[in-house]
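Give me the 3D structure for Nucleoside-diphosphate sugar epimerase.
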Amino acid sequence: MAAPAGFEAGAGHPRVWLLTSFRAGDNAQVLGLAEALGWPFEIKRLAFRKTEFITNRLLGVTLAGLAGDGARSLAPPWPDLIISAGRRNEPVARWIQAQARPARPVRLVHLGRPWADPRHFDLVITTPQYRVPAQPNVLTIGAPLHRVTAARLAEARQRWEAKLAALPRPWIAILVGGNSPPYVFDAATARDLARQANALARRSNASLLVTTSPRTGAAATSALREAIAAPSFFHAWTPDPDANPYLGFLALADRFIVTGESMSMAAEACSTGKPVDLFDMGWGWSAMRPPGHPGLGPSRGFSERFAPKRLQHWALAHLLPARVRRDVRVILRRLVAEGHAGWLGDDAMVQRNPPPNDMAAAVARVRALFAPR
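Predicted structure for Nucleoside-diphosphate sugar epimerase (373 residues):
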């Protein structure tokens, strides 16, 4: 069989570049897909100027938004495949593809929501909250891709089990995200999370394993730490990966509480097949629970409902063009409806099954780009 056009015959695999930047969730998806493909890859870590939005929107296919030495690493030999995620990386991927033509066709795979028309990519792998229109080159999966595998969980279990052994079981892990408009994780929200987690721990005679993330602010972290009343292990996020117990918690916890603004953490927790409780960070029009749900919180006062930041969030959620909006509730409500998760505070306690293996479908579609023609 002939090799696909542009593919280096005899190399045995495509040359793969990963475009990563500052968003940990985007980078995890890109790395997860690359690792699942099993092809060697090279990571291009990019930084961007503060003006990148303007230059990228005006020029489209450009490196003008890059800061530092990022552009110097983008040179021949060009890759066969680029995997990217996030708005900032789109113009860079398309620039590389343009430079390689016509001698070398570079396949572009973009994860999440493309700001450019999807036709500019060979494959877009997206999730329902972005509402990307159905097209032959668009694969819509149930939740974000991730790097959680049985092998990584087994390794994390060995590293962390002894460190947590003094805490009484069962263990409930609290996976904490942060601000993500229209959702705000401030000190008051942190205390509410702690109140509900403490109540669940008391009912279950459980310990709490708490970890924050890069998006968790200092005030919210402090408030959460002070409000946790159950036996606990508390990790405030640092850049040191060796100190991060996140994978250990996924491997060892018997149940999870996840702040609902993080699709990645929700997907990773659900992948374990253990009970997952989603913490609703919204209220009023931004409530994560569906309308009419008995767990919806009470209405708030005039000053909160019409605060400038709240009005700004409403405008962003309702007035922007549909193609640049997102609604995480689409995924959260589907996870609950399909029995993969529940809402924190609901009484039901059921053993839940993990969602379908979206990674397998994504890998198959990427490999199909290199099938002999």
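The first helix runs from residue 24 to 37. Let me know if you want a second pass.
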